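Researcher: Next entry: Very-long-chain (3R)-3-hydroxyacyl-CoA dehydratase (Heterocephalus glaber).
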Amino acid sequence: MKNAYLFIYYLIQFCGHSWIFTNMTVRFFSFGKDSMIDTFYTIGLVMRLCQSISLLELLHIYVGIESNHLFPRFLQLTERIIILFVVITSQDEIQEKYVVCVLFIFWNLLDMVRYTHSMLAVTGTSYSVLTWLSQTLWMPIYPLCVLAEAFAIYQSLPYFESFGTYSTKLPLDLAIYLPYVLKLYLLMLFIGMYFTYSHLYSERRDVLRVFSIKKKM
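Model: Predicted structure:
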């Protein structure tokens, strides 16, 4: 039952991200750069659905049906949720920026490979090329994701300052001013990247070493 559930979950995620990536690719070859401007309007709903469902992975790890470390996965998921729902979804002006299209491409490349590998692993199937790709593709792409996320935050700051979105006054003359919170989060984003990158690199070394031993047996 556990494997059947995980297979269905990974399959749903794979289909969702594959649809997004295929849609973006077809639109780009059909309309060129113009397709990048309305990326969020055409596939934003499916992206938000996929990222929302991905929060289930924290529950999977917590209850033990998925073998992974909770904190690094928490950092990766919250990173995307904050960028997608707080920074992009709340500001129409940001939704038309090229950085949104770039972010979605990076996220989907990583997730298509990761969910394909995980889906096959549940069935006991493994391919050396796919295993290597799932443990290596993130090395150049993940830092680029973080840079794109940081740039999206930077571009959003003037709009949050102008419109006061999510900024609110509290009792005792206190206030939450979101631009300050986002500037602080920029620092945390790069600190979190170092921690996550170190964890993923260590995981890659262990997985590829075990996979190499299995191939020799």
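Model: Note for the record: The chain has a mean pLDDT of 89.
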